[in-house]
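Late entry, evening session. Most of the bench is empty. Finally got around to the prediction I had been postponing all week. Sequence below, unchanged from the version circulated by S.P.
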Amino acid sequence: MTTLVRASDTLTRDALTVLQPGFVGTTAPDWLLRRIGEGLSSVGLFGRNIASPEQLALLTAQLRAERDDVLVAIDEEGGDVTRLEVRNGSSFPGNYALGSVDDVDLTRAVAEELGRRLAACGVDLNWAPSADVNSNADNPVIGVRSFGPGPELVARHTVAYVEGLQAVGVAACTKHFPGHGDTNVDSHHAMPRIDVDLDTLHARELVPFRAAIAAGTKAVMSAHILLSALDPERPATLSPQILTGLLRKELGFDGLIVTDGMEMQAIASTYGIERGSVLAIAAGADAICVGGGLADEDTVLRLRDALVDAVRTGELPEERLADAAARVRALADWTQAHRVRGVVSGPGAAVQEGTAPGTEIGLVAARRAVVRTTGERPYTPITSAPYVAAFTPVANIAVGDETPWGVAAELERLLPGTETGSYDRPTVDAVLAAAGERRIVAVVRDAHRYPWMTEALDALLAARPDTVVVEMGLNEAEPRGALHIATHGAARVCGRAAAEAIAGL
């Protein structure tokens, strides 16, 4: 049941201001425009909202016709996690590929070009980059979204990414504070727990965040993880010790603190999204991200009213809510200033792939990230149409299963007639029967994490030693096959770079 409030009520406006909701559709629904008029200051975009650059530019123009300083946010990491190119795969490799190359100028250039495309479409807050140190190779949700397992490596590329985005007027949101890399649970499904001491935390997890703060990241996103050394009871998103004590006071961050999605089960199943949102703002968060799964007006009203009621009952200090709202408005002022100065193009300037300066930088980076390892004999490039056997694990929620990945489409472009099959726990006989006399290209993703995938590869290579193996996830397993190609990510451009290597180009 919603609380009846006046649209002019300062408290209500502040409660709306701290929300970053999503919605369904490629045009803004009436309820969203109405709430923007009442004080809603941010909107989050997901793949379901985007059909083309031109459509996205029209959508953001529609939002700003209602309020010219509205923040438009997106989860566009590039690589495996893309919303701009959700239907075709990203034109940019992700963090793991960039970290494997370890050229900060390249990372900065990739982030700047990605930011330029976002800005041209009217998007001005990117929930990226991931600054997580992927110290646990079995992590089910970070993996290739991290620059790598080394704190200093992750730190220098996080800085370059932040600098690249913000150079073109797109605010970076460094995530997932205080570090999601050493987890073996996906916080979309349950509460991850990290039991490391404070010395380890400061020497590993916090190194990239310190660097990002020093580089001027405009926002930081909290993680729904329990860090027992700092707060044994509440996850970071809801912890005053972590958000206010560590992030604000100890690390000196003065920008916008954004929560990860509040409908994720780590929060929703334990606290509920209403109480979780109140606790998050009380702990020091400034903006509530919601909308990946709950994307309707009722969700906005429920969260708005929960915050208003918490202030009126004394659970949430009004000054804390006002401070959070002020930080949202301050970031909106920064992004708006960049648009006014012309850093950000208008809706008529939406970038099409291949038409803007620097658009090839993603492919350049993907090619540089490819690592080729040959077997005992010199590799003979494939010159006729092969059979691609894709061993397909279940995608994590952050990546989603709607974005295509692999090498088949790019091999078809180079070698017309290429055929493909997708397999989950296949028998080698099924693959061999489908392939016939064709050369086989086996495509895997995080093979080290899936015993069934390793067993399938063993059997396939025993039967067909000339098989090419393409690893598009973490490159943790020993290289095998006539040619082993590690792409360090599954973006479309990574598939193209792999296809070129298979064909000997």
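Two things to note before I forget:
Confidence is low (pLDDT under 50) at residues 1-8, 343-358.
The longest helix spans residues 318-340.
Will write this up properly tomorrow.
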